Amino acid sequence: MAANIISGTEVAKAIREELKVEVAELTEKHGIVPGLVTILVGEDPASQSYVAAKNKSAHALGIHSEQVTLDVDTPEADLLALVEKYNNDPKINGILVQLPLPKHINEANVLYAINPDKDVDGFHPVNVGKMVLGEQCFLPCTPHGILELLVRSGVETSGAEVVVVGRSNIVGKPIANLMLQKREAGNATVTLCHTRTKDMAAHCRRADILIAAVGVPKMITADMVKDGVAVIDVGVNRIGMSSTGKAILAGDVDFEGVKEKASCITPVPGGVGPMTITMLMKNTVQAAKMAANLI
Ligand code: GUN
């Protein structure tokens, strides 16, 4: 079976068109310009390119965006003070602190300092708790993007066997939780595999929907999946440099092999990545509407 390639680039573009209309309406009817600040500490090239892409996307939608880059040695107290400044800035609806942070900064201290009403990453414990309870909140952007990809690609999740590989706070834990809830793109039977899982391949072979978020290039191979599986590849692994100096990326899934057995599969790049940024924009618009009591 040749798989249907799920283009996150195309789905994200369609959602951004919807958001553009929503932002224009907010601005024209209500005088509201949603605002996002991204804060980057240090010069990690991957983080720099993610943050640049987030600001570019905001700008294209008519969202006000500010970008702050701090020296890698910035003390934690200074970063906390900056977060507090933006907590109190009415022009800013969403605050994003790019992860990972340098080792001397306690990530939890910073994430917990963000006002939950401006936590467009959905990483604050208040939003994580609400998500687990199935209440209205900011959903973390990558899992939110995966749900949208599944819905818009017509993948049936109700009653499906979903296997998630990877237990990170950003992807594995939240997507596993969301997909077992009574909600759109939910009602699945979910297995969460991790580094201590015995016989990972046996679990993966049961999956109707396989979500790989481990950060190991091409770890999921064709012999580990069943015919007709829907595959979502969250991995973005830099495996080399092209002759033009661009990073060569690989997912967590051996795309060439697995696509011969899958019913549908996301590519890397052009799969989950563009969705993550777009869901950040969606959360920023949601934050602006909440601040104006419009939802
Ligand atoms: N680093 C990698 N992914 C993310 C993300 O979704 N949000 C933030 N803030 N940092 C990240």
Automatic annotation (TrEMBL):
Keywords: Amino-acid biosynthesis, Histidine biosynthesis, Hydrolase, Methionine biosynthesis, Multifunctional enzyme, NADP, One-carbon metabolism, Oxidoreductase, Purine biosynthesis. The keyword NAD does not apply. NADP(+) binds at residues 166-168, 236. One of its GO terms (cellular component) is cytosol. Catalyzes the oxidation of 5,10-methylenetetrahydrofolate to 5,10-methenyltetrahydrofolate and then the hydrolysis of 5,10-methenyltetrahydrofolate to 10-formyltetrahydrofolate. Homodimer. Belongs to the tetrahydrofolate dehydrogenase/cyclohydrolase family. This is Bifunctional protein FolD. The gene is folD.
